[in-house]
Each structure stands twice: as structure tokens, then as C-alpha cells.
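Database export, one record per block. Field names are fixed; values are copied verbatim from the stored entry.
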Amino acid sequence: MLKGLLLDGRGLSGRHRAADCFTELADDPNLVAVFHDQPGMHTDLRARLAELEDASISKRCMVLTPLDGLGGEIGSQSVEAGASGSSDQPMLPRVIFKSDASRKVFELADRVAQTDVSVMITGESGTGKEVVARRIHSASMRRDRPFLAVNCAAIPENMLEAMLFGHEKGAYTGAQTSRAGKFELADGGTLLLDEITEMPLSLQAKLLRVLQEKEVERLGADAPKPVDVRVLATSNRDISSVVADGLMREDLYFRLCVFPLKMPALRERTEDILPLADHFLATYAQRFGRSATTLSEGARRCLLSYQWPGNVRELENVMQRALVLTADDAVAENDLLLKTPSATQDRESDEGVDLAQSRQAAEASLIRSTLRDCGGQRRETARRLGISERTLRYKLRALKDSGVDLAREGL
């Protein structure tokens, strides 16, 4: 065990005096974190560590590490409250940032984690909504219990109910054994309902009852089972519009949206772009067995001028692609294959808008004529168009938002 540290200033001058050596040591959170609990160390280090931990959230940009299985959404390790090894503080999946927009979101996430209320996390696809949910779980009293996620948009309606609530043997054709649903499996922990606005209305009513009664009934079961699950939900859509369009029950919305959090798009937090890009380069260079790779100045300017419609997930993909294309130790602008604003591209964009508008008009005309031929029946219309009823609902809502009065047309 370290008993003391000697800062010898003999023979040093200027800023290398012994007193300044201590100041520089106390400005390094890694060294402070190592030494602050050691007997014989200067007691001011403890106070200095606390100052650095408070400052690290808003002033320091730390290394980013994506959480497993999150497809590019951001997470990281850092020195902040709880990272010094104290047994009463959990090691959290850190989310590191430079922007104030990100800082505000994760400060709120850490605060709401100390309660047990439901949280609705909104934001565009690829912004890191699931990472926010995982951090809330890891910072909560439920951190030692399961964290499960269900993508409500990726699972067919006839399977989603059994997946969430479970089923008994023989409950339906093919149910050869009894199986617990996600609510039972997450008992004592946290269940994330990803893209909750895609859940069919018929299941929303059953979900609401589970949330209210804190008990779940398997398909084919005779009695419900009590469950203790904290529910977090995400959506990449405007929830109020979804509720107004009748695609989400208002009572379920109020049950889930006790505490709303919105993850800003990457273009709204440009200070995070370059640290994230550097992180992804380092991560995938190691994974691909490449030497350390950096970004050229041209590449950095290109990244900052791009709008990032795919957000962090798109940035991660671009960095992987750049590593494949570049043969040098520095990624050039051409290796990114990004279209950044220019006069030529603006003209191309204008032409593209005209083409897109023409395609949308043709699609709208086809949908309306098919709907008219089917006497307004949505299911038959969707079948003839070769799309799902859910897709048809989205397209009809888009028509409504664009000013088309379907009711006046008798549709």
C-alpha cells in the first residue's frame, strides 16, 4: 500500500516548482482517483477529487464506449460520481459528451433514475434513446435485476402479446409449453418498450391494465400473477400527434409519460460529432486489426458540415466505411463518401424534391382511388396495395397532415 508521495522540487524552476507539481497532479482526475484514499496523501486531494468529479460532467470530454448490442448508440466510461471505487456507488454505463444539450438530458436521466416513475424517451432514430434507458436502469435501485427491451415495431401483432405477457401450454396452436412473458422475466427490474407508438391498440388496453394493477395474466391462464416492473418507453414520433390521431390511447400515454425526456438529434449537438467520430475510429481500427487512425482536417470539416439524418448510428457506419476505404493513417474527406452542402448539390437537391413530390402525388392518388374502389375498407385497400394495414394508416395520416380531407371524399 502506498504510504506517501514525495514531490521533490529541487533543481526545478519556473512552472516546475514543487508547489506547481502538486497543482498539476491535482488537476489529473486519474491520478487523484488512484491516490485520494491512500494514507499519507495530502488531504486536499480529497476535496480536489470532488471538484473534478463535479466539473467532469460539463467540462471534460471523455472516451466513448458503445454499450453491447445498441447498434451505435452512445455509452462510455468516465470519472464522475461513483467511479472512484466506493462500494456504495454503482459503476454506471457512462455517456460522455461535450454539448450542453446532451449534458441536460443525462443529468435529468440520473435524477429520474432515483425514483420509480415511468419515463417516455423521444427522439429521432439513432440518437441514443436506448442508452438513456439503460443508464436510468443502471443508476436505479433495480440495477441488480434484469433489464429487458422489446421492439414493438419489429414483432408481429399476433406474437407481441405472447412475448409480453407469456402463455400457457395449449393457449394457441403451436404453444407446446408454457412460457413466461417479458413482464415476468423482468420482475424486479426494468422493461423497455421500444417504439411504443407502434403497438396495436388492442394490446395497449391490456398493457394499461398491467401497469395499473401491477399484475400480468398469461394467455390461457386462469389467474394473474403479480409483477414489479418499471416500464420505460421510447418513440421516434411526436407522441401528442399519435394520440390525437387515435393511434395511441390517451390514458396509456399519461400512464407512461410521467417523466418525458427528449434526446436531441446529432445535428443539434455538433460538439459531440468529432469526439464520437474519434471514438468509433479507435474502436473499429482495433477490431479490424488496423493501426491507429486519425481524421484529417478536411474530414473533420466535412463531418461538422453534414446534417446527419441517421444521427449517431449513421456516424458509426460512416466511420466503419472510412476505415475500409482509407489506406493511410489519416481518413481523408473523400473516404467519408458524404454529400456536404454546395451550390451543385443544392441544385441537385431541388431537382430531387420535384421528383419526390411527383412520386408522393402519384402514390396518394393510387391510395385514394383504391380506397374508393374498396368502399373505404382499410383492410381490403391494404391487401390490394400489397402493404400492411399499419403502413396504410401511416400513409393516410400523412395525407391528412398534407391537407387532404378524406372525410369530405367519403373515405
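Remark 1: The chain has four domains: 14-59, 100-170+177-264, 270-336, 343-401.
Remark 2: The mean pLDDT is 77.
End of record.
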